[in-house]
Amino acid sequence: MNKFKLMSVRPEDCFLVEGKERILESYEPYLSDESKMDYKPVSAIFFPENTAQVVDAVKRTTGQGKGIVVSASRTGVTGGAIGVDNASIISLEKMTARLGEWHFQAGVKIEDIPVTDKDYYPVDPTEATASLGGTIATNASGPRTFHYGATRNHIKALTIVLADGSVLDIHRGEVVCENSKFVLQHRDGEIVIPIVGISMPPVKNTAGLFLKEDMDLVDLFIGSEGTLGIVTEAIVETAPLPVNRLFLVIYSDTESKALRLVEAIKSKPRFTCLAIEYFDHNAIALIRESDALLNIPGDVVCAVYLEILNGDEDIQEKIDETLASCGLDPEWTWAGFAEGDMLEMKRFRHDVPERVNAIIGARKVDIPGLHKIGTDTAVPEGQLRRILSFARSEVEKEGLQYIVFGHIGDNHLHVNMLPRSMEELKKAEKLHIAIAEESVRLGGTVSAEHGIGRLKKDLLKIQFTEGELAAMKSVKDALDPQGVLNPGVML
Ligand SMILES: Cc1cc2nc3c(=O)[nH]c(=O)nc-3n(C[C@H](O)[C@H](O)[C@H](O)COP(=O)(O)OP(=O)(O)OC[C@H]3O[C@@H](n4cnc5c(N)ncnc54)[C@H](O)[C@@H]3O)c2cc1C
Predict the structure, then answer these.
(1) What is the CATH number of the domain that holds 264?
(2) Nearest atom of ligand 1 to the alpha carbon of 92
(3) Boundaries of domain holding 418
(4) pTM to 2 decimals?
(5) Number of domains forming the structure of the chain
(6) β-pairing, 155-161 with 167-171?
(7) Nearest-angstrom CA–CA distance, 239 and 147
(8) Through-space distance between the first and last CA atoms of the chain, rounded to whole angstroms
(9) Rounded CA gap, 192 and 44, in Å?
(10) In a shared domain, residues 127 and 271
């Protein structure tokens, strides 16, 4: 039997802000995240600087019978880090130290993880201010996931504080599930975590807990959204830094040509793509509005962004031929070779979700209950056109403002609906469910990268059977029997 010892770490005093009024006055941003969901004031926010201080914060909070909201950069879009009743917040934002070559505290921002002249950490959620711990908790992914896979593929080791204040320090390969359980040895006994394998779609997925009969214990915590433990440190797996990259924004005058291009690149690859992203006509209109400097030609309808490994001498020819075979004009591309070009194009990509959030933020001034509804579904190969045409026709039937953009290389497009009234919000909520149901019917997931949080809990039962949800609940009950960690998130 594979038994693993939990560590007892002596708690250290930690900086703490107390009092609901003081928090509302000076620390209100810590109560919300990018979901813009309604939040409740909390009576304490802890700002630990190391694992021992997280242990202190956990023990003090649970000792008062309160729940714990784990909070990092608060870029999450599903309400996982917002203030809730009868809970304290543990913010990881001060935990940004580098502890070894690729060993970091969990609060370090993705954009601050160094790049050497040989290696880099290739996970690139579009929002680079997201923290390492937050991206581990949500198994985040990004444009380059097309080539490198999601966060799960790049985590070698984790340090985790459990709900009872004990500390788990695990390296990948060290603890593998045996006889359908993990056994963690404690000073006062054992924690037995029952593992029942559940069906997981053959797509990028972060909905629900990751449960497989022969799984690694590290994987149980990745994507668990802070419901099983607080990640305080991680060792990441890097990839060789690509020496030469080419960045292309390929403009198209029809969506059909753009989709043909994506299919051609994936079915008969003639060059290596790290990322394939898509922006539909409404996303292009939004970028035009928000950033005139980007100067998008007038008759552009949609665009495909490619990041290409530029190793071949005849790369230009291969790209031109691929574009021509899809009816696209090689002259109609914005190409870049240097890091500066990539930053410009990143602005192009980043403008879209930011502008959506700004539009909804402005509407919320008059209608406080309003929020955007964004799908996060992915479908298996060959099903992209089906889900896209289903989503578009359903949303247009209801007359809602919407945009479609995202990680088309992974068959993972976000349909963002921007309601103008509470009535439209209700319609968008129904459409969200319909698109999630259709994605699952096509063999996909309800959430490919953002997670479930507090906002999308209703979607879990679309993807999982009652038995599968019960299997997840038994894992939660084993590790956190009082339900103190991230109450109301996911399960
Ligand atoms: C403009 C924009 C673009 C985005 N693009 C992408 C994208 O391309 N891909 C993508 O995956 N996401 C994207 N996101 C969503 C968001 O950036 C990710 O979900 C990110 O992983 C959240 O990290 P965070 O540090 O902000 O976590 P938070 O928002 O603070 O928390 C997110 C969840 O993780 C939990 N958590 C945080 N830290 C820890 C920890 N150390 N231990 C345990 N649990 C923890 C929280 O309790 C919460 O449930 C985008 C968001 C925005 C605003």
Answers:
(1) 3.40.462.40
(2) 41
(3) 245-374+377-445
(4) 0.94
(5) 2
(6) antiparallel
(7) 11
(8) 29
(9) 32
(10) no
d(C-alpha 491, C-alpha 468), whole Å? 11
**491 half-sphere exposure, CB direction, 13 A CA radius:** 26
Asked whether residue 339 is domain-assigned, the answer is: yes
Q: Which tens digits make up the pLDDT trace of 92-132?
A: 999 999 999 999 999 999 999 999 999 999 999 988 999 99
Whether the per-residue pLDDT at 71 is higher than 90: the answer is: yes
Q: What six digits make up the tokens of 450?
A: 């953002």
Closest CA to ligand 1's atom 11: 140
Among all chains, which residue has been given the structure tokens 């240097």? Answer: 338
| Cα of 160 from ligand 1 centre, angstroms | 17
Pocket of ligand 1 (CB under 6 A): 33-34, 70-77, 80-81, 92, 106, 125-127, 130-131, 133-135, 137-138, 140-142, 225-226, 230-231, 353-354, 449-450, 453, 486, 489
Q: Which residue is associated with the tokens 């001060």?
A: 94
Q: What is the pLDDT of residue 86?
A: 96
Helices then strands, counting H and E runs in the chain, come out as 13, 21
Among 35, 218, 450, which is best to mutate for testing ligand 1, by the most ligand atoms less than 8 A from CB?
A: 450
| Cα Rg of the chain, angstroms | 23
pLDDT 10s digits, 7-34? 889 989 999 999 999 999 999 999 999 9
Indicate the DSSP class of residue 450: S
